[in-house]
Amino acid sequence: MNHFCNDHPPDPASDRAKAVIELADRVLGRGAESPSQQSCLEHNSSLRLSAEKLCRCMLLIERQLALCEQLFYRWQPAQDSKLGIQFWKRGRAGRVIPVPVIWKRPGGRWAKGEASKFYPVEISASELTRRVKTHGAFGEHSERVRAVAELAAKLFKARRVVAQSIANLQRSADALSRVHLEIEGPVRDAWLAEMDRLAPIIKGDDGQDEDGG
C-alpha cells in the first residue's frame, strides 16, 4: 500500500510522518543528519552546558556569601549597625536570594523589651565596606570584617552578572518555545502536504507508466 495515497489508515498523521521519515532515510541515507540539524544539536548542547555552569557558579557564590555571614556574626559584637547577609524570598516566584544588611535596634543601645530587638535593614552591596565599624567593641576585628566586606561586595557583583546571564538564557529559551509553538503545526502540515505531492515523483511512481503512457 502506498502510504502517500489518499486512503490513509486510522492514524493518518502518524502514518504520513512515518512514511516521510522512511522516504527521507532512503534519499539521504538512514541515520543521516543535515548540516542544519547537526548545528542545532550542537547549539542546544552548548546552551545546556552553559546553563549548568551558570547554576553551579551561582551556587558557589551563594555558599561563599553564607560563609561571609558566619564571619560577620563571629567577628562583630551584637550592637547597632553590625553588618550581615540575609537570605530573603523575593518576587512572585518566592526565590530566596542573598541580601546585604545592617542590623538596627530601634530603642538604641540601652533599650529594653521589644525596643531592644534587632531588625535587618537592606543596604546596597557597594555600601558594605563603607559601613564597617571600627570604634569601641567593633575595633578588635575591624580589619577582618573589612576583608570579609570587600569579598562579599565582589561576590554580590559577580552574582549580578551570573543572574543576568541566566535571565538572558531563560528569555532565549522562552522565545524559542513560543516560536516552536507558533510554527510547529503549520510547518509540519505544509511539509507533509508537499511530501504527499512529491513522494510519488521521488519514488518514481508519478501515476504514469514508465514509458510515459
Protein model, in words:
The protein has a three-stranded antiparallel beta sheet. The chain has one domain. The longest helix is centred in the last third of the chain and has 61 residues, at 142-202. Helix 1 crosses helix 3. By secondary structure, the chain is mainly alpha-helical. It has helices at residues 12-28, 35-75, 142-202, and strands at residues 82-90, 95-104, 119-122. The chain is built from three helices and three strands, in the order ααβββα. 56% of the residues lie in helices and 11% in strands.
State the secondary-structure class: mainly alpha
- Count of domain modules: 1
Number of strands: 3
Q: Mean pLDDT across all residues, rounded?
A: 75
For the biggest β-sheet, the strand order reads 1-2-3
What attributes does this structure have?
213 residues, mainly alpha, three-stranded antiparallel beta sheet, 3 strands, 11% strand, elongated, disordered N terminus
Task: Show the helix and strand layout.
Blueprint (H helix, E strand, L loop, with lengths): L11 H17 L6 H41 L6 E9 L4 E10 L14 E4 L19 H61 L11
Antiparallel strand pairs: 1-2, 2-3
Helix pairs in contact: 1-3, 2-3
